[in-house]
Structures are given as structure tokens and as C-alpha cells.
Amino acid sequence: MILADAGCEVTLWARRPEVAEAINTTRTNPDYLPGFVLPEGVRATTDPAEAADGAEFTVLTVPSQTLRENLARWAPVLPSDTVLVSMMKGIELGTAKRMSEVIGEVAKAPAERVAVITGPNLAKEIADRMPAAAVVACRDEAVARRLQTACHTPYFRPYTNTDVVGCELGGAVKNVIGLAVGIADGMGLGDNTKASLMTRGLAETTRLGLSMGADPQTFSGLAGMGDLIATCSSPLSRNHTFGTNLGRGMTLQETIAVTRQTAEGVKSCESVLDLARRHGVEMPLTETVVDIVHNGKPPLVALKELMSRSAKAERH
Ligand SMILES: NC(=O)c1ccc[n+]([C@@H]2O[C@H](COP(=O)([O-])OP(=O)(O)OC[C@H]3O[C@@H](n4cnc5c(N)ncnc54)[C@H](O)[C@@H]3O)[C@@H](O)[C@H]2O)c1
Ligand SMILES: O=P(O)(O)OC[C@H](O)CO
Predict the structure, then answer these.
(1) Which residue has its alpha carbon closest to ligand 2 atom 7?
(2) What residue's CA is closest to ligand 1, atom 40?
(3) Domain 2-164 in this protein, CATH class
(4) Taking burial as the number of CB atoms within 10 A of a residue's CB, which of 46, 73, 121, 136 is the most buried?
(5) CATH 1.10.1040.10 correct for 168-307
């Protein structure tokens, strides 16, 4: 929608023929965005070759853990000069790779042809054309500027950044912190708790980023603090809502059963922790989320353990 509103011709690839058909005939996606009419510049197909034909930008937004498998199928039909754009906010399980790394590896694309769009961009608010800012990151600033122009609309204001690592980490870790804040909400805890989780969550994200060569300033920008605020404050966030259900006492299976859309943090909390361990970085909040979500630790027990950790200086 944003790309079409900015004047681009857009072809969506859809898995299900009925979704492509609905988009082409009614300009709606009744399953995922009922009530929203897509702009004229958007059409859909189930044929990846048709979707990729002549594409200046190829925007990838499948659930992170399915990217490698999907992209392996699409890679042969991608134009050799297309810029591959990730909107995914996850880290691959098993490899602990960022999505841009998976893209580079599978599509054999150099870093100059891989970009990221991230920031406080809750889908429903975007579909409502409510004003939002974002970050368009690419190691090659000229490519970032081209993409910035391609997605700049009166309601969507993208800023460029060359710190791809920091932008991707901000997006992936905020989902884990969003789960933690949701759990706190579900437990009936207050705003001091939430503010503390968000702030210390950003501190551990920054710590990880620094160890991976990211620019620490990225984390106080839209990809870091901005997205963290949106995710941790909004009931529209799937990660936040997932956490709230867990905090209210639902089991993991019950929570998964009532969650239809992708909550990336549920899987990525494990890969973020894996990444942190590979870099020798302590991430106590991420570890706590993994314990609650995957190791069956009751939230109250996890909270007590978190609060009784040894006292530290703030910058640690
Ligand atoms: N929704 C948002 O507000 C938002 C905003 C910014 C970034 N993101 C990121 O976008 C990525 C995708 O999330 P989303 O919001 O589109 O999720 P979603 O659950 O709303 O949609 C996922 C889409 O992928 C499809 N899908 C599921 N499994 C698939 C598979 N194995 N192969 C191919 N397609 C598959 C689904 O049919 C659906 O169309 C995530 O990394 C998320 O963090 C989401
Ligand atoms: O619904 P969530 O939790 O995946 O968050 C959506 C976006 O990432 C917010 O920017």
C-alpha cells in the first residue's frame, strides 16, 4: 500500500489463489485486512516469476523462520539487480543469523543489494494511513536513498541509515521485550515495571549491538526505542498480546491456539539468546522470556529471580 501510494507499481505474491483473486477483483484481503481497500497500483499473483519480473525492489515479509526455504524457491526468478528488502523482525533459529544475512546467503546478493525497513510500524495503523516514521537501512547509502524515495508518502516518513546490523537487532529484540512487557501487563503489574523492562531491554539490546559492531545511536532511534515504544504500548502488537495472554496464566499451547498472526519473539527469543551467547553478552530479560515461554517457568518465579540478581551500576 505504501509503495503504491508512493507511485510504484506493486505485484504481491500470494500463496493462496483465492487471496490473489480477492486482491485483483475486490482490492481487498478479507482474511488479513478486512475493511481496507488497497490502492489501484497493487495487483497479486501466485506465480513468483510474475511477481519478480523486472522488480527494482523485492520486498520480503514472510515469517522469519520460513525465509530461507521460501527464498531458495524464489532466488532463481529474481532479477540480478533487484534490491532485496527485508521487513522481517526475527533471527533465524539454529544459525542465529539476521534476515539480511540469510538473504545475502540464499540469494547470493552482496550487502549493497540488501536493505531493511524497520521502525514503529504497526500494520493496522499503516493500513489506516496514520502518520508514522521508519528507517530504511542499507550499507550503500545511495540504495537506501532510492528505497526512501520509493516508499515516501504523506503519511509514511522513512529516514535512511547505513547501520543494518543495529536496525535489524532493534526490530528483533523489541519483540522479545514486547513479550516481557505483555507478560507484566497480564500479571497486572504497573507502569514502573513496564518502563523498567523497556529501558533495561534497550540496554541489553544495545549491549548486544555494540558487541556486533552496530552503532549505539541506532538504538535510541526509530529502529530501537521507537519500535520498542510502539510494541510495548500497543494492544495491536502481536508480541505484546501474546505476552499478556501468558501473563494472565494461559499455557504456551493455549496462547499459540488463540494467536493467528506471527509473533516473531516467541521463536526469536531463543535465537536472540543464542546470538548473545555466541557474542558473550549477558541478556537477562531475554533469558527470562525464554524461561517463561519455552522452559515452563512461572512468570512470578521468573520475576523474583530477575529482581534478586546481584546489584550493578546502570551502565552494565
Ligand atoms: N504486522 C506488523 O505490524 C509488522 C510490522 C513490521 C514488520 N513486521 C514483520 O513482518 C514479518 C511478517 O509478519 P506479518 O505481520 O506479515 O505476519 P502475518 O502473520 O500477519 O502474515 C504472515 C504472512 O505470511 C504467510 N505465511 C505464513 N507461513 C508461511 C510460509 N511458510 N511460507 C510463505 N508464507 C507464509 C501467511 O499466510 C501471511 O500471509 C515479521 O517478521 C514481522 O515481524 C510486521
Ligand atoms: O505486532 P508485532 O508485535 O509483530 O509488532 C509489529 C511491528 O513490528 C511494530 O513496529
Answers:
(1) 122
(2) 88
(3) alpha beta
(4) 136
(5) yes
